[in-house]
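Whether sequence alone determines local backbone shape is best considered at the level of individual chains. The sequence in question and its structure tokens are set out directly beneath this paragraph.

===
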Amino acid sequence: MNESITDGPDAVAQMLADKLKEMAEQCPNAAALVAIDEFDREEILTWRNLRKAVTEQSAALSTLRRNYRNPVVHLQAGADLRSAVAILSCLHSKIPVLAMSTQGGRDFIDPIIETVRENFGDTIDIAELTPMKQGPSGEPRGVNQPSVSSANSARQPIFLLTSSGSTGAVKVIPHYRLFGASASLPNALFGGSGWRQGQRQLVIASLYHLLHFSTLAEGALGGCTTVLVKRFSPKQTLSIIGAHEIEWFMTTPMHMREILDVGGDIASSVRSVRGLLHGAGPCPIHVKRAWIELLSPERVYEFYAATEGIGATFVNGHEWLERPGTVGRGFYTQVTVRSRDGSLCPPGQVGRVYFRRQARDELKRDWLNNVPGGHQSLGDLGWLDRDNYLFLAGREQDQLVVSGQEVTPAQVDAMLHKYPGVRDCLTFIVEGAGSAASLHALVVPHAGAPLTEHGLRQHCEVELKPAEVPRSFTLTHRIPRSEIGKIRRRVSQSEYDVITASSDSTAPCPYSS
């Protein structure tokens, strides 16, 4: 049962201090955080040591308010103990934290920090801050003065994240509440998907993603053991789930598919899992069915949302089986689908998806598509059935006009997934220099599957409109997505060449997001 709470910065800081004290006294040597690297080496932080580390770093952070106006601490947050302790220390000290991707260099980081400096407060790199012991008087000592940038700011958020950039330029997203619309621990999305206080939970992506950030924070507040996987490997992840008897984790369709590809007795490895919550993109129907068969409909849940925090949908396994492909109904959110003139679409008609959050403090994101009444859209397309279950149909910015017809690459992907032997696929819009944009598909076959470009083309010519058939089909062994399965679809010819080259190596792709 969810516990109703107040989740402003003062309340969160007090709750965290109280829980750390309670756990350090009741089970000091029990694992609070476990970080596992790609070589299966484990770092363990007990509740006693987590409280000590957070208290010391929080003491250093608290001194920033004496010297800087509206300080905001920033870090590149991976799935590791350093990042986890830094985030919890900021929540403990009521200093806003900006968690950024671990993938970007200075050309990525500097514009984000400049945006924060201009809009929220002085920025401090946590790497330049030295954790402190308490002095004899109880005051922190040994302060290392970090470099900062000055700014004016009014109301400060609890934490800030960045958008993935898959819907446009990377943006800074402030969050003023920790638990979203539900005002409960756990938040209603987690609670509805089997999350429980004191559980063993798994984080398989970096902590700069909203739901993984929330998993860490709510896990600490709920006395959970949180296992952090520094670099996702499907075989290793299965082993970790089994060895640590993981009860709950959040994942993406990409991770779900890759774990299934391991083969063997997967069911034995995941038998401890009480709840699997997935999002971050459409899930192929065959992948979703396979997980429901592994865990049962009562243990598989799906949500559709974004870092912007404007709303969400939610669906359990039973509902999904009745409506395969749905991402659910509005969850503390009013969902509407509208045509380009803003009028409501009837059931079954594709239009732009809008959210209106039923929250205590409505947030307007000015860069999104907005219509009167507080309805905001990320630019995703979809349709509602007669019971208000939402089905996604790609993104508006990814539409392409071919021979006078609008084409959505996501619909091409859905058809390719139905072809026997296709393990993964993604259709790109490639914009040529001086020529019209065209569709090109990357296809990953199952091991040993006799896929050919000719066979794929014939399948598409039968199942799709002529304008929807990709100009080319490239067979490869992987699609170079980001760690949560995202990549830009609309690219130039030179960028597409980089993507196809990246698909033949393990190097990160600069256009994954």
About this structure: The chain is about 30% helix and 25% strand. The radius of gyration is 23 Å. Residues 9-26 form the longest helix (18 residues).
